């Protein structure tokens, strides 16, 4: 806020004042007053006017500049409602009231949606727990009546199970509240669980599993992490080549981190698409290849969960050579005290 | 025969679980009413309890805690709740294992077998299996035959153990691979062939030639 601009806005008062001064000057001339009075009256009035208008300008300037500075520093701009000072001029007071009321109403609105979302998430979790029972029962029935037909149904049920798990974690990934529990876990346990979850499709696709150097402890939520590794293994299965399929999993301990490598020799990803694989809904060329049905959710969700857990997720790939996914667990020497 | 009590309120799942456990050589007991579940459970005097968490009247966590006050019977919590915190709570309440629905059936079996073995007082004898021609010492991972003995690698031991368990039956390669995967050895077809050859050579070294017979196109059989 510059004084010139402020003055420009108040130009009308200045013009009116000058008109008044001109009429006074005319009167003074008619009554032939002393020249000193003729000069003194307009000069003193103009001086008082400018002092007055500068005081008003200064008040407003300090209020608005302060407000703008606070707004600039704020991460969450809507918090301005909590930090606004009470000004001592009427427009400021009106503004303050408006900002406060808008803020309040917005907060109410946001809370409404937060509640709706929380409610929906709760419902999804409940629903998922419910649907797991008929799935478990179906799998039991299949186990007790093993034929070629039921085996084939079993495969489909496994797919359903995976989609359900994805939905559960999708719901979990969106909530504000902390929904995970970090503890020390052995990477081997996470990897073995993920592989066992995919046992049927790994065996069916005749994929060679090469695990080494995975006896490492990391701090994470094992359920979330198993889901992430599981998704990556599923991708490796889905985008494998015709034969001689391999998945290699190993971890390397570095100074401040543990890096888990999951490498396959699958069809790989086109160069231009690598940076986009973590985007929601991105399927790319591979997603449409040979009737593969890609939803573009898997890796997006992995990235999101990793961000929440504070672990890194990176991907390298070369077309027709394979894909390497790196999961990076930060290791703080501070929490590693035994 | 070991008695396993299934505490599960979904009737269909309960019945299928019962059939499955009976098929696998256990006696499966169930309770149908849950209004007095703690006393009912204790009355069955089972060797192991499969306990669901979501039950009518009293929830599984409470039941688990109450049973622990009175009995040391092994308890496996079976639940569809799948998060770290629930698992910790259950284990704190005295459960021995925690399995989430829908469970991997082979893993459930392995956990049952593991717990039953651990709770047995004569566990030491369990680690030696006498197979007429030789003795398989699981804890030491060796085959003993009269004075001779030979060491086995982890995979060889698992394969032989599985064949011993299925003695006299034809076991397919797929079954062996499946078994090995469930015990966390993720081997492929080629590795199995290599391990099989080595195992046979070792058996031959101590004079047990052709004890494992190949049934072409079907699998193997331990005589």
Side-by-side strand order of the widest sheet of chain A: 2-4-5-7-6
Unreliable stretches covering 5 or more consecutive residues of chain B? none
Class by helix and strand content of chain B? alpha/beta
Distance between the termini of chain B: 25 Å
Model regions low in confidence, pLDDT < 50 over at least 5 residues of chain A: none
CATH architecture of the largest domain in chain B: 3-Layer(aba) Sandwich
Shape of chain A: elongated
Q: Tell me the quaternary state.
A: heterodimer
Whole-number count of domains of chain A: 3
User: What is the count of distinct domains of chain B?
Assistant: 2
Strand proportion of chain A? 5-15%
Name of the CATH class of the largest domain in chain B: Alpha Beta
Helix content of chain A: 55-70%
Radius of gyration of chain B: 20 Å
Widest sheet, order of strands of chain B = 2-1-3-4-5
Q: Give the biggest beta sheet of chain B.
A: 5 strands, parallel
Describe this structure in words.
Chain A is of the alpha+beta class and 338 residues long. Chain A has helices at 3-9, 11-30, 35-73, 80-83, 90-144, 148-173, 187-197, 199-204, 222-238, 298-309, and strands at 183-186, 208-212, 217-220, 246-253, 257-264, 312-318, 322-330. In chain A, helix 7 packs across helix 9. With 223 residues, chain B is an alpha/beta fold. Chain B has nine helices and twelve strands. Chain B has a five-stranded parallel β-sheet with strand order 2-1-3-4-5, sandwiched between helices. A four-stranded antiparallel β-sheet of chain B has the order 6-7-8-9. In chain B, strands 10-12-11 form a three-stranded antiparallel β-sheet. In chain B, helix 7 crosses helix 9 (189-205). Chain B starts with a strand and ends with a strand. Classes of the chains: A alpha+beta (338), B alpha/beta (223). At the A-B interface, helix 5, helix 7, helix 8 and strand 2 of A face helix 1, helix 4 and helix 8 of B.
Features:
heterodimer; A: 338 residues; alpha+beta; Heat Shock Protein 90; five-stranded mixed β-sheet; two-stranded antiparallel sheet; 58% helix; elongated; B: 223 residues; alpha/beta; Rossmann fold; Arc Repressor Mutant, subunit A; 2 domains; five-stranded parallel β-sheet; 9 helices; 21% strand
């Amino acid at each position: 806020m510059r004084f010139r601009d402020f003055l420009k806005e108040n130009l009308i008062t200045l013009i009116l004042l000058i008109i008044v001064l001109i009429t006074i000057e005319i009167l003074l001339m008619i009554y032939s007053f002393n020249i000193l009075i003729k000069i003194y009256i307009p000069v003193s009035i103009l001086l008082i006017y400018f002092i007055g208008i500068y005081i008003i300008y200064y008040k407003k300037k300090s209020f608005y500049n302060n407000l703008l500075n606070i707004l600039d520093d704020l991460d969450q701009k809507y918090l301005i409602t909590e930090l606004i000072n009470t000004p001592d001029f009427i427009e400021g007071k009106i503004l303050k009231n408006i900002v406060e009321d808008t803020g309040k109403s917005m907060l109410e609105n946001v809370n409404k949606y937060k509640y709706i979302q929380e409610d929906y998430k709760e419902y999804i979790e409940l629903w998922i727990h419910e649907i797991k029972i008929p799935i478990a029962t179906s799998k039991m029935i299949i186990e007790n009546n093993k034929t070629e037909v039921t085996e084939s149904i079993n495969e489909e049920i496994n797919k359903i199970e995976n989609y359900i798990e994805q939905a559960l974690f999708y719901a979990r990934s969106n909530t504000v509240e902390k929904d995970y529990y970090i503890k020390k876990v052995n990477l081997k346990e996470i990897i073995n669980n993920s592989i066992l979850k995919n046992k049927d499709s790994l065996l069916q696709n005749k994929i060679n599993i090469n695990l080494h150097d995975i006896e490492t402890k990391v701090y994470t939520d094992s359920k979330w992490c198993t889901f992430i590794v599981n998704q990556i293994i599923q991708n490796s299965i889905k985008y494998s080549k015709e034969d001689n399929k391999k998945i290699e999993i190993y971890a390397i301990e570095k100074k401040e981190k543990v890096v888990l490598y999951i490498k396959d020799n699958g069809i790989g990803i086109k160069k231009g698409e690598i940076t986009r694989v973590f985007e929601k809904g991105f399927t790319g060329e591979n997603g449409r290849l040979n009737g593969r049905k890609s939803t573009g959710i898997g890796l997006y969700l992995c990235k999101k969960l990793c961000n929440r857990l504070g672990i890194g997720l990176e991907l390298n790939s070369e077309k027709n050579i394979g894909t390497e996914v790196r999961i990076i667990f930060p290791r703080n020497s501070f929490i590693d005290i035994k | 025969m070991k008695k396993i009590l299934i505490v599960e309120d979904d009737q269909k799942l309960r019945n299928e679980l019962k059939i499955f456990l009976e098929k696998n050589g256990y006696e499966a007991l169930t309770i149908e009413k849950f209004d007095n579940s703690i006393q009912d459970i204790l009355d069955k005097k089972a060797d192991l309890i499969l306990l669901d968490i979501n039950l009518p009247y009293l929830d599984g966590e409470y039941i688990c805690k109450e049973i622990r006050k009175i009995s040391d019977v092994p308890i496996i919590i079976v639940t569809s709740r799948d998060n770290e915190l629930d698992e910790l709570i259950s284990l704190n309440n005295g459960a021995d294992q925690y399995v989430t629905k829908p469970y991997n059936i082979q893993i459930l079996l392995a956990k049952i077998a593991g717990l039953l073995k651990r709770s047995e007082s004569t566990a030491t004898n369990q680690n030696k299996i006498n197979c007429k021609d030789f003795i398989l010492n699981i804890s030491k991972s060796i085959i003993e035959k009269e004075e001779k003995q030979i060491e086995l690698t982890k995979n060889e031991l698992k394969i032989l153990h599985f064949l011993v368990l299925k003695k006299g039956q034809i076991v397919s390669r797929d079954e062996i691979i499946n078994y090995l995967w469930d015990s966390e050895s993720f081997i492929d077809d080629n590795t199995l062939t290599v391990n099989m050859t080595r195992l046979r050579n070792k058996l031959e070294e101590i004079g047990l030639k052709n004890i494992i017979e190949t049934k072409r196109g079907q699998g193997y059989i331990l005589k």
